[in-house]
Amino acid sequence: MEGIFFNIDNGFIEGVVRGFRNGLLTTNQYLNLTQCDNLDDLKLQLSSTDYGNFLSNVSSEALTTSIIQERASNKLYQEFQYIRDQSSGNTKTFLDYVTYGYMIDNVALMITGTIHERDKAEILSRCHPLGWFDTLPTLTVATDLESLYQTVLVDTPLAPYFRDCFNTSDELDDVNIEIIRNKLYRAYLQDFYDFVTTEIPEPARMIVQEMLDFEADRRAINIALNSLQSSDVITSELKRELLPSIGKLYPTMTEQMATQATDFDSLKSILNNVHEYRGIFETKNIEDQFYKIEMEMCRDAFTQQFTVSAIWAWLKSREQEVRNITWIAECIAQNQRERINNYISVY
Amino acid sequence: MSANREQVFPTRMTLGLMKSKLKGANQGHSLLKRKSEALTKRFREITKRIDESKRRMGTVMQTASFSLAEVTYATGENIAYQIQESVANARFKVGTRTENVSGVYLPLFESSIDSVINDFKLTGLGRGGQQVQRAKNIYTKVVESLVHLASLQTAFVILDEVIKVTNRRVNAIEHVIIPRTENTIAYINSELDELDREEFYRLKKVQEKKQKKSAALDAELKAKALNAANKLEVENTDSGIDASGTGGPINEELPSTTSHTQAGQDLVTEREDDVIF
């Protein structure tokens, strides 16, 4: 029944997204890309895909990996912006929630730049376009967290996420920023999850919840893994505050990761208790493994009709696609053929 | 020949000076030659090592920039900025000390890692932290080998310069100073020989003069004696004493001949002294 009224608001958007989804690079196209001898060939191959002539005004001398990445990302941002502009109601809120993650990154970036007294323009150019909000440039006035919150962030959607951050020290330094970022992200994931649970109808709810669960687990595992070497800064209490409060690992494994995971092997044995992540450390690159799981999730998300989750799945797929293209371009540019097949292709 | 020698007075003292100079030059030449050989040996060694590390550099750099690509793949593009901003202290430091190779001071760069300082260990906490750490380790190795290469390269340039200077000196001594000193010695010897010959000739001349003089004296004496004898004879013939008259001139003549030979002997000895000297 839920499908009956879906098309009133979201039919067009879903149509557009499904069109975009069909434009995602397929395994065969990736195979063609890996056969390229140089970046010019790559450009030629890409021009026969949905990317079209996105590199048309770049001369072959100026063609670098970073330009390819930049152009491909810009194309994605434009398309996402278009969809966002077409949306209304809950769908719009949902898409806003999607961008909050990028906003957190931007805020962290701005604060980092501010405490090192960097030029504002320099930092703004590096901010993620999807996480842009109007008061972002004014972030530079803040020197401590309290004033940052009072002057700027209180008007942004991120304000509630800062609630948990004030019990740490008020002075901003690099360690704090990284911790704040992760605390914000934790609160954001929780908030997003609550929003989805209450506002988004099935079946999109289930899909998005699954994706959020996975995102939370990925962050949890990464934080546990990356904080192994810095146990002096990140105590188990602090770790408990950083690890997300949703996901398949929560609460049992999260608690164990916070208190018991002091080395790689104990972390591994904890994760072996969870079916989804059993053996994730067996392969060489855990990041690749996560990307693969994520992409499979996104692919499966398109199997459901009448969902807003397809938009998010498409966004993630496109981000991965940009990463893949960058990776392939990098391998071609640096002549590292043996690892060119490390990209992740599910379509 | 005369152009390629020093402007000196050809005296025995200068000869002695020149001889010691030649000796010094020979000694210096062999010393410098040995130095230049030692330096060249070192130079070849360094060239070999530079070659090796440059070749190694290529592969190391490749892995390094590839690990950076991995970081970008895992974390997104802003990671470089975050890392740049979160670094406050130098973890990797380069110190220098000097090494003495046959009197040449070569700067030696040494790298040290302060493992306590680890500024961006939290970067990528939520995503890609391991890639960041791996890239850090690989790039540490890159910088290490860069420092090593810089050390070698500096030594290479300095040694090259020093070897050139030393070789120039060796060649200058071998082809300019030694021949010139030898020429000067030859010149002084020839001049001294010339002087000796002049001296000999002069002595000969004196001797000849003396001989002539004494011959003339003899002749005069003889003539006087003859005259006296004639007078005596005339008187004897006048007075009739024959025996004593003939004995007189003979006695008179003897001392004069002995004195003459005496003088001749003196001259001979004198001359011979000169020649020896």
Automatic annotation (TrEMBL), chain A:
SUPFAM superfamilies: V-type ATP synthase subunit C. The keyword NAD does not apply. The keyword Ion transport applies. One of its GO terms (cellular component) is vacuolar proton-transporting V-type ATPase, V0 domain. GO terms for molecular function: proton-transporting ATPase activity, rotational mechanism. Keywords: Hydrogen ion transport, Ion transport, Transport. InterPro entries: ATPase_csu/dsu_sf (IPR036079), ATPase_V0-cplx_csu/dsu (IPR002843), ATPase_V0-cplx_dsu (IPR016727), V-type_ATPase_csu/dsu (IPR035067), V-type_ATPase_csu/dsu_dom_3 (IPR044911). Gene3D superfamilies: ATP synthase (C/AC39) subunit, domain 3, V-type ATP synthase subunit C domain. One of its GO terms (biological process) is vacuolar transport. V-ATPase is a heteromultimeric enzyme made up of two complexes: the ATP-hydrolytic V1 complex and the proton translocation V0 complex. V-ATPase is a heteromultimeric enzyme composed of a peripheral catalytic V1 complex (components A to H) attached to an integral membrane V0 proton pore complex (components: a, c, c', c'', d, e, f and VOA1). Belongs to the V-ATPase V0D/AC39 subunit family. Subunit of the V0 complex of vacuolar(H+)-ATPase (V-ATPase), a multisubunit enzyme composed of a peripheral complex (V1) that hydrolyzes ATP and a membrane integral complex (V0) that translocates protons. V-ATPase is responsible for acidifying and maintaining the pH of intracellular compartments. This subunit is a non-integral membrane component of the membrane pore domain and is required for proper assembly of the V0 sector. Might be involved in the regulated assembly of V1 subunits onto the membrane sector or alternatively may prevent the passage of protons through V0 pores. This is V-type proton ATPase subunit. It comes from Eremothecium cymbalariae (strain CBS 270.75 / DBVPG 7215 / KCTC 17166 / NRRL Y-17582) (Yeast).
TrEMBL record, chain B:
Keywords: Hydrogen ion transport, Ion transport, Membrane, Transport, Vacuole. Residues 235-277 are annotated as: Disordered. It is found in: Vacuole membrane. It is a peripheral membrane protein. InterPro entries: V_ATPase_D. The keyword Ion transport applies. Residues 254-264 have a biased composition (Polar residues). GO terms for cellular component: fungal-type vacuole membrane; membrane raft; vacuolar proton-transporting V-type ATPase, V1 domain. Pfam families: ATP-synt_D. Subunit of the V1 complex of vacuolar(H+)-ATPase (V-ATPase), a multisubunit enzyme composed of a peripheral complex (V1) that hydrolyzes ATP and a membrane integral complex (V0) that translocates protons. V-ATPase is responsible for acidifying and maintaining the pH of intracellular compartments. This is V-type proton ATPase subunit D. It comes from Eremothecium cymbalariae (strain CBS 270.75 / DBVPG 7215 / KCTC 17166 / NRRL Y-17582) (Yeast).
